[in-house]
Amino acid sequence: VIKQYTIQDTYRFNGNVVPSVGFPYRHDGEVAAIKWRSASDEKKYYSQQNVCEDFFGLDQFIPGNDILLVEGEMDALSWLSCKLPKDLTVMSIPNGAPAKVRDEKVSPKEDKKFRYLWRAKEQLDSAKRILLCFDADKPGLVLKDEIIRRLGNGKDIWTVDLGGFKDTSEAFTEKGEAYLIDKLECAAPLPTVGLYGVEEFQSEFTKLYEDGQIKGVAPGIPSLDKLIQIVPGMVTVVTGFPSSGKSDLIDQICLNLARNHGWKTVYSSFEKPPSLHLAQLSQKLVDMPFFEGPSTRMTREQRDWACEFCQEHFLFMDHTRQGPTTIDGILEVASKAVMRMGCRVLVIDPYNHLEMPTHDKETDAISKMLTSVQQWCRMADAHCFFIAHPTKLAPDRRSQKKVLVTGHDIAGSAAWFAKADIGLTAWRHPQDSEPPEAHVWKVRWSWLGRQGFCQLDFDRSTGRWSDHVREIVDGAYWDL
Predict the structure, then answer these.
(1) Can you tell me the distance from the alpha carbon of 471 to that of 475, in angstroms, rounded to the nearest whole number?
(2) Contact 399, 212 (CB under 8 A)
(3) Which of 36, 82, 37, 74 has the alpha carbon at shortest distance from 57?
(4) pTM for the predicted model, two decimal places
């Protein structure tokens, strides 16, 4: 095993040449990078040549094999020292468990570390089963949850319990080969659909008691922050009359989530070509117009900086290049965005461009569609903003001075209201006689926020949304 998977040599660590072990990472049969560690117990040195971008052991994979994923090269060698089934390939992640954990989840700053999953997508898709055996500490548990989230519930994923040992190397040293083989044979599949006992939820139940409800993040506009929180695993239905600014408002929220929390978004926007959409996001980010006009436009340096920021935080489904037009297709591509970049937001804009099944009544088709989106959000631990236009209003409502639309006014089904976790409407007054407003018409859980509305400001030159600023003059409020 040592001869096949390592290099025995000397290596220079900060000027010290010592006997060392190298772990070669191969790509297309060639050594692409090497991790080095000193072979002496007196003082430990670590270094590497080039960047390790793929799984350690990926070059050994045979299509159709099971894959056993572990957390380090020494754990991989421990398993490989055992008499394993011929249809099992052992691979180690290249960069260890995430160092930064927030609320027992991977920090968005660590998202780049998971690119090895996307690079090995072909092998992971080919595997019959994927078995996970990571360290039994907090980073290892968070790593396991993140790998499961990114691979999705369509894979046959199993977990190997080492029975209280910190990692495979420790278990192998203390108990030997027979112990590891026994634990491998006792691997348990992740629960799929069906009935579960209380023990399946006991840790979540205890965490609710100790820590309280799940904490969301703010949309990034102070007055709207007081009304709602954005939580992964849920769906926000967004509506409003044409040209009310609903798509622009969601763009602003997604940009705020990226800047303030590092969240990444994947867009399925049927009405916006990606290049134009990128221009709109850029001018919100820079706070200067993208195009020539009466106001000074952004510089090329600002344009390039905004493009780099968007490249880190946004992905686009291009419907001018045969992007998906069914909900199943959109969710499949969105799952790839979760795997590739760790996206936590999906925007579908708008509903009326989707292809719907013709064999169902419209109300039933919409209900099934929203159920699929809800299930995907929970599985992917992501939030979906689903934008839908309202139906034509009855004459008696059109005659009202101020007409607000909710989920009940979206065409096709009452499910738009019933299945929304959060309901949001963007409203513009006729002739812009007053500031635009954001109305929250549904909040499923009280800890997520409350119903209400707030006034906002919209900068036409940049497309930025912000709080509506008011100033007290002689004891009265005046709009600025």
Answers:
(1) 10
(2) no
(3) 74
(4) 0.82
